[in-house]
Amino acid sequence: MTRILLTRRWPEAAERRMAELGEVTLNPGDQPLTAAQMRQALADYDVVCPTVTDALPAEVWPDNPRVRALCNYGVGVNHIDLAAAKARGVVVTNTPDVLTEATAEIALTLLLMVARRAGEGEREVRAGAWTGWRPTHLQGQLMTGKTVGVIGFGRIGQSFARKAHFGLGMKVIYNARNRASPEVEAETGAVYESSLDELIEVSDAVSLHCPGGAATHHLIDATRLARMKSTAILVNTARGTVVDEAALVDALKAGSIAGAGLDVFEAEPKVHPGLLDLDNAVLLPHLGSATVETRVEMGMRVAANLEAILKGEAPGDRVA
Ligand code: DGY
């Protein structure tokens, strides 16, 4: 029987579905695996189903891995050295599509929370410090009619653009490695901007939707932060490594940008201590895909990929 390891707790329905596909080992304590435990898992199981919290660099692989497939629970695979897996003939799959809307919603949530100073307001109410309505109290920024620059224009970036343009009436510009088709541009209301720096300079808000990994490491660094408007907001629901967190703290402290909404961090679950003191930063614990529906669907998508692999068919979401 196929030996399958789920490295973290999954929603029950998804765990039950996986149990139909082989002999499943669950992680009832929900603790992330250490590197040594991961190495052992690659030696002991036919299929390992990791998440974003499982690092799978080349060094973790044992000499004689038993594993034949890594069926990742999540869309981002920057935590997996795909070349190292491929070199060992290991198939890698992910879970696109099912988390698109949830993640785009979180980006919009962060944008509005920062613009409307919702985190500050919530803290004030809970602290019993609210003295009542007054015309000058916690004035934020209207986003309706403003320009948002979207960096990375895959499924999530497109969904965010659609929501921002048709929902909030924002002007949306985007930059990506490849320009989208005229149909996608019309349907999302987004206009292509070929220069990343130009996009950053003219946007009232910048929302990151590119993959993580070496190609986008510190794409938003001190120089690019300095190009942003002093009234602009940065939203990151992509990967923490896309932003130089120390440079962001400096920019937020200096007021060279107005605020930031972050769902991802450079060294999760650690958060740069400088961010914790800043009122103009809204910080969420990587909640992009965290809805009941989405997390079940992610598990079902893993199961669909694995079922295809076990039948000797091509899985729908193969990334290596
Ligand atoms: C992903 O899927 O890559 C998210 O970051 C975790 O859900």
TrEMBL record:
Query: Where does the D-isomer specific 2-hydroxyacid dehydrogenase catalytic domain start and stop, copy by copy?
Result: 12-319
Name the Pfam families on file.
2-Hacid_dh, 2-Hacid_dh_C
Q: What SUPFAM superfamilies does UniProt report for this protein, alphabetically?
A: Formate/glycerate dehydrogenase catalytic domain-like, NAD(P)-binding Rossmann-fold domains
What keyword terms does UniProt attach to this protein?
A: NAD, Oxidoreductase
GO terms assigned for molecular function? glyoxylate reductase (NADPH) activity; hydroxypyruvate reductase [NAD(P)H] activity; NAD binding
Q: What InterPro entries is this protein classified in?
A: D-isomer_2-hydroxyacid_DH (IPR050223), D-isomer_2_OHA_DH_cat_dom (IPR006139), D-isomer_DH_CS (IPR029753), D-isomer_DH_NAD-bd (IPR006140), NAD(P)-bd_dom_sf (IPR036291)
Please give the GO cellular component terms listed in this UniProt entry: cytosol
The D-isomer specific 2-hydroxyacid dehydrogenase NAD-binding domain sits at: 108-288
- Family the entry assigns: Belongs to the D-isomer specific 2-hydroxyacid dehydrogenase family.
Which PANTHER family does UniProt cross-reference here?
2-HYDROXYACID DEHYDROGENASE-RELATED, GLYOXYLATE_HYDROXYPYRUVATE REDUCTASE B
- In its UniProt entry, what is this protein called? D-glycerate dehydrogenase
Which organism is the protein's source? Caulobacter vibrioides
